[in-house]
Predict the 3D structure of the following.
Amino acid sequence: MHADPKGVLTGVHFIDGDHACCEGTLAAGARFAAGYPITPSTEVVERFASRIPTIGGIFIQMEDELAASIAIQGAVWGGAKAFTVTSGPGFSLMMEHIGYAAITETPCVFIDVQRGGPSTGLPTLPAQADMMQARWGSHGDYGIVALCPNSPQECFDLAVTAFNLSEEFRVPVMMMLDECVGHMTEKVVIPEAESIAVTPRRYTKRPPAEYRPFEPMVDLVPEMVKAGDGYRFHVTGLTHDERGYPSMHGDTQDRMVRRLQDKLKPLANGRALCETEDLDDAEVVVVSYEITSRVAQRALQAARRQGIRAGKFRLVSAWPFPSARIRELAGRVKAFVVPELNLGQMALEVERAAQGKARTISVSHAGGTVHDPDTILEAILEAAR
Amino acid sequence: MAKGFVAIMAERCKGCGFCVEFCPTRVLTLSSAFNSKGYHPPYPVAAEKCSGCDLCGMYCPDFAIFGGRHAR
Amino acid sequence: MNETTLEIPCEIPEDARNPVEPFLRMDRMPHIWCAGCGIGTTVNCFTRALLDSKANLDKVAVVSGIGCTGRVAGYARLDSFHTTHGRAIPFATGLKLANPELQVVVYSGDGDLFAIGGNHFIHAARRNMDLKVICVNNMIYAMTGGQTAPTTPGTAITATAPYGVSEPTFNLASLAEAAGASYVARWTTYHVKQLARSMEEVLKRKGFCFIEVLSPCPTLYQRRNKMGDGLDAMKDYKAKSKVRNGAPTGECALSMTGEIVVGKFVDRERPDYLELLRAQMTETLGDRYAEPEVSCCSEG
């Protein structure tokens, strides 16, 4: 299925990451957004609010992020593709509903334009400190997807991917921008609608009498219905069985929670998105994402000029984390260098995946600005020693 | 013959007594028998007075009783 | 005939069926509510309202929050959503806007709607979102063990106010009116006919509608306050309630032992959210405005 041309602004644009994100959601078929103003993310819904009345859809500014993050899920069960947008403090408020989306298997997208924290922190300045929160922020065990664009073009492309993955796996998908990527203006090419692939919702073809709302298909993902179609189905945030009925039993819990994680295995095992360069002969691998991957690029070039065999591993999907690829690399490189605008979040994940076979050097930065490329270069040089 | 009837699902009853108290024709009383949960369900002590108004059904929080009118 | 057996000594037609059954998930009975709890009684009224309003049941959705009343969604044989604590209204807002042909009923408790969810309530009322909000007010947090709610009247003993509540309460009807609700009524579980009629009325009407239903909680509220069982509460409602349709909501505050003013307090026409949105967009954008069509398709 391809994109509905109504939402696709085909052409060459000079726009920032936030605006490009908005165009991506429209191209993906999102016709409902709910939001609450917060710097540096608001431009996404500001553009949506300006674009949607002539396309045919709804933007509603809710009373807070709790409301926005659940209103989108009501809209999804009413038949819409929907998303919300926020930054750190609002992302914290949305955690409960990321859990609700996970347990009710509601496909929806959360866009987080990261700023410095904790709390109000640095409202207008970048950080990448919500990476672990994106994965583990809501209580309980569940799986999510988190994508990390590093350019306005990728904000557009990955917004489409985010919706597609959320529909395929019926999971909440996070778009993890940072303030730099969100506010960086670059060329964005939006293709023709026919060349944008859009994953349709997995609506059941079964009649109501044969349909069980949470019965997994072969890929562990259940088929969906929407309100108003005569299925008279029930959705609950309580642990539930295949009928969708609450079930306060350890075995139901075990079956449900494991499936919520396991259904993402195809993504974790093979399709986890990354961008690599110069890995064949690499002795040091720089693992980075979002804006930091662009700073790291310069350090990588400098290292190569100095004769260091440095390779690039950019996380396009931070979650699921490409553990298998890192593990494989760990067997043949000296070290991983992980620069990030936090005190070492994804570095922990690299270290875990490397299983002690290669060193992990965290190049941490508390945010507010980006790394000096020389700091990353020094870490590469030290790793190569 | 009574105009109406009451049907009682004794096992669903929790013995709150709403139906007995608010029956306009005083058809019901609580039985001295127990259901398996240990509650005393109602029973029609004056079935012939039942008008079939289903007020007992409107009150019953446990969906354990309802009234209806006999077809004539 | 023997009053010590459970045999029913009257003639019951073979095809007789409890009229509530088509509206409920009978495979989930018995429900979790205590003996003497009034939530089930409100559900009876709701089923009668659904029947009498001749609503297309495929187009009625129930959204609940968390708590004892929050379980209504799980028992209603409709498209039904048991959401998170306090967030039934914003969920319902999204559902309604995505599919405006749905009649969306929010069915939840006083703690859920007015403490944790209070902000959503006032904003949905302000927007005149086309939602029918039914609040079963048992004056306590029952599911969690009887803690103070914003509706628990002064001096009552609760699990978190063992020496008596000292905070003032919300007057829910007054709050709803001030925030902009189109329709405000209050009944008790004693007033089953009136409650069913109010529910029927709101099912047939547009705009943000609010019905408060006082309901017994013998286990968590009354027991600590030596107020007897569910039936005692019902008798109390009968004795103390006074129907005053159109009464100024500001004069209808509840107390622990005082008069209970019931009735339909507010019934006013205001354009609802979608009507206002359409008017504004048409005014500004003219022919360029596209009616919202938010539903996405599956392949084929």
Q: What stands out?
A: The domain at 5-195 of chain A is CATH 3.40.50.970 (Rossmann fold). Chain A touches chain C through 53 residues (CB under 8 Å). The longest strand of chain A covers residues 108-116. Chain A has a mean pLDDT of 97.
